[in-house]
Amino acid sequence: MNVGILGTGNLAVTLGRAWTSAGHSLVVTGRNPLHASEAAARMGDAATAVDPADFAGRADVVVVAVSWEGLEAAVSLVGGTQESMAGKTVIDCTNAVDYTTGQLKPASGSAAEVVANSAPGASVVKALHLFAGASWPYAGPKEAAPVVAICGDTHSALDLAAALIGDLGAQTAVVGGLATARQLEEAAGFVMRVVAAGHNPRLAVPDVDPALLSAAGTTTN
Asked: Across all residues in the chain, what is the average pLDDT?
C-alpha cells in the first residue's frame, strides 16, 4: 500500500518507520522540502519525499500528523480544498490539546471534522492521537497490545485504518462515527491532566473485562 504521510515531526517519522518495516511504501510531504526529505530518510528506503502538489495523487491512504495550529494550512497545501483527497481514506492523528492545561483547542467540533471540512469527499478516520510516537511499533504479548480507539463514518475507511494500526502491533476499537471525534480528542486532555496531577492515567479508569460483562448480562437476562 502507498501510505501518504502529511507531516515531518516525530509522530510522522515513527509511524512511517513502522509502516515501511511492515512492507508499505510511503510518500512524505510538508511545508519545508528539506524537512520532508530528512523525515523520509529517517523512515527508511521505502519512503520518498514528494512535492505537496504531487502528494495526494501518489497516496492510497493519507495520514495527517501535524500540529493543530497548522492543520488547515497543511490540508490546503496538498490540495484538500480542491478535492485532491476525494474518495481516499484520511487518518487524522492531530492532538488538538493544550499541553499545559489539557484543554481541547477547538471551541466546537473536532480536529478530525476540520480535516473533513477541508478535504471534501475524503473519508476521515480519527486515530492514533492518544499514544506518543515512541509507542510504535508495539512488539509485546498480543493480549497486552494497545487498543487504539477510532471513529469515522465509512466502514471501508475504518477497515483500512484498522489494518494499518494492526501493522503497528495494536488493536482497534471502533467507538462511533466522526461526530465522536471530539470525545476522543478530549480523552487526550484527560490523560494530560491526570499525568500533571502526578498519576498514571491507566489507573484513572476502571479495569473492565467485556467478557465478564457479557457473561453477567447473559446470566441476568
From this structure: 94
